[in-house]
């Protein structure tokens, strides 16, 4: 079982070595900016390494939005970051499910996701597999708020099923975040079977504990042996999914390194 961490993008391979990580995830640009990625000086070194690479798309991206000034740039930005991810040999690019305004309704958001994949197909396709990630709340791409004016497309799994109905004709991957699921009101017991019944696959696990209680709608990660989730439940999710897992937990090298060791020992 390959275990890793989300790391700073400046020297990602050094960050992986410091944590003993088999895989890493990082951003190609400032996650809060509308910015296309540039070629990296270390691209060839990253591609040649035995560390598996995943890229996280900018938080700004929200292809579900009915606001043209958000939706259209989001489509273009996801396409360009997928191209940048391919240049570092990434196995996937993770993007949050996004949201719509309550006045627009979720059906509009699901159809906008379909249009995003159609747009990509008309423009050469995504250069790297897109992995849609479940979210914890409903504010923006970071999904930290429980605001009733925002309707998340990928928090509740009944809505996730509607999203997959809309985009099922395209090749789409899924990233399951344990903190987001727990904080979003989805029980972790049996979650792998429920997800696979919808998506048919789990490509990556974001193995995070939660600082907040079940169904809180708050996206605040904690380390494996801290937080509100029984860490053995997180281990069970990874084992059942049979997918690579990475931690997006606090504490830098020490905190993430301890989390990786914890998971690796229990999954051995």
Overall mean confidence score, pLDDT? 95
Please report which band the strand proportion falls in: under 5%, 5-15%, 15-25%, 25-35%, 35-45% or over 45%: 15-25%
Termini separation: 8 Å
Return the domain count: 1
| CATH topology value | TIM Barrel
Binned, the helix content reads: 25-40%
Question: Sheet with the most strands?
Answer: 8 strands, parallel, barrel
Rg (CA only): 17 Å
Question: What can you tell me about this protein's structure?
Answer:
It is a single chain. The protein is α/β, with parallel strands linked by helices and 268 residues long. The chain has one domain: TIM Barrel, CATH 3.20.20. Helix content is 39%, strand content 16%. It is built from nine helices and twelve strands. The strands form three sheets. It has an eight-stranded parallel beta barrel, surrounded by four helices. The chain starts with a strand and ends with a helix. Mean pLDDT is 95; it is low at 139-147.
Supply database-style keywords.
268 residues, two-stranded antiparallel sheet, alpha/beta, 39% helix, TIM Barrel, eight-stranded parallel barrel, 12 strands, 9 helices
